[in-house]
Design a protein that fits this description.
The complex is a heterodimer. By secondary structure, chain A is mainly alpha-helical. Chain A has one domain. Chain A contains eight helices and no strands. Chain A is globular. By secondary structure, chain B is mainly α. Chain B has two domains: 34 residues, no CATH class; 126 residues, no CATH class. Classes of the chains: A mainly alpha, B mainly alpha. Chains A and B meet through helix 1, helix 2, helix 5, helix 6 and helix 7 of A and helix 1, helix 2, helix 3, helix 6 and helix 7 of B.
Chain lengths: 184, 169
């Protein structure tokens, strides 16, 4: 990540210098501004979702969800920890239902707990990759945007989106298993 | 749209269930919220670094140059050249790729082949670098390269496959 940051930063800066040097600082500032705006949005989103998740947890729903998904998750992530699997179950179900605000805090909690696991490199990589392939069942953003632009069949992208997400999921999980799964 | 009903239904069901199980719902809600601001504060430095970088990358016009350089390779692989900038921006910037998606819809019509491909690219992938910042931020060691590369490869394959399905369906 550090290498990538330096490379992209230097190459982009060089390109800005050649094209329009005055754009350099405004570009950095607008990125920071976007980050602040996003931070405020995230604070609101996490306030709602963390409160809600705590209710679900105290009602025993997370444990219930974790138990239901355990046959799948314990194999995929190769971990037995009750709490990790609970957060992973919440993360996966929230992702599928398109509740990104609930998925991220649960995913981060799972990442932190997995840090103590012996096969943490594998389990953390798997959780990250699964979160990168977007396993949402209904691509709501795209559908509503298509409707806004006058699509007559806004739902006809669902199947291609699901199929290619599924392909990405399978490829991603296989690669994690092949590359990081052997060292046990 | 049915999706709009799912969320309120889930919230109501959970709160109802919790109160049946004698959970002190108000206290639980407040207790959970305690974690929200610390979470944002711990993520913010990494989010900011990634967003500053992606803003610089977009301003540099490199994506346009890359697009020109990669267009032949992309069209050879079955990716329409009109969406190559979306494919390139997607891993870096969620807001940038959403803006590009709107532009594509406006320019080519929301039902065109190009718009369908763009929808698949947008919806079947994630902003990998942003997610990596968020997910690996709290950990003590540095972000490992392998998962990021794997996620990029998986997303790129899903782009290829998605464009292919849009052509045959």
């Amino acid at each position: 990540m550090n290498v990538l940051f330096v490379c992209v930063f230097l190459v982009s800066s060089a390109a800005v210098l050649i094209a329009e040097p005055a754009d350099f600082l405004p570009a950095l500032l607008s990125g920071a501004e976007n980050a602040l705006t996003l931070g405020v949005t995230l604070a609101a989103v996490y306030t709602v979702w963390l409160g809600f998740l705590k209710i679900a947890e105290d009602a025993g729903l997370t444990r219930f969800l974790a138990r239901g998904l355990r046959p799948l998750t314990s194999r995929l992530f190769r971990t037995r920890g009750e709490r990790e699997l609970g957060y992973i179950a919440v993360n996966l179900s929230a992702n599928m239902l398109g509740m990104g605000g609930a998925a991220t805090p649960a995913g981060i909690s799972a990442m932190n707990l997995l840090d103590a696991a012996e096969n943490r490199d594998y389990a953390q990589a798997m959780l990250f990759v699964v979160n990168c392939v977007s396993v949402q069942l209904l691509p709501t953003t795209v559908i509503s945007l298509r409707e806004k632009y006058g699509s007559s069949s806004s739902y006809d992208v669902i199947l291609p989106v699901l199929l290619s997400s599924a392909l990405a999921l399978v490829v991603g999980a296989l690669l994690v298993r092949l590359i990081l799964g052997r060292k046990r | 749209m049915i999706a709009a009903y799912i969320l309120p239904a889930v919230f109501m069901a959970v709160i109802l269930f919790a109160s049946v199980r004698k959970v002190r719902v108000y206290d639980s809600f407040a207790e959970g919220i305690k974690g929200a601001l610390p979470l944002v504060f711990s993520l913010f430095p990494y989010i900011a670094a990634i967003m500053i970088l992606s803003s610089l990358f977009e301003a540099s016009g490199l994506s346009a140059a890359l697009e020109r350089a990669l267009a032949p390779a992309f069209s050879f692989l079955g990716i329409p050249p009109e969406i190559s900038s979306l494919v390139l921006i997607k891993p870096f910037s969620g807001s940038g790729s959403a803006a590009l998606l709107s532009e594509i819809f406006a320019e080519y019509g929301a039902d065109s082949y190009i718009a369908r491909c763009a929808s698949v690219v947008y919806a079947s992938g994630e902003t990998v670098f942003y997610v990596s910042a968020v997910y690996f931020a709290g950990l003590k060691r540095k972000t490992p390269a392998a998962p990021v590369v794997i996620a990029l490869v998986a997303n790129f394959l899903s782009v290829l496959f998605g464009c292919f399905i849009c052509r045959v369906l």
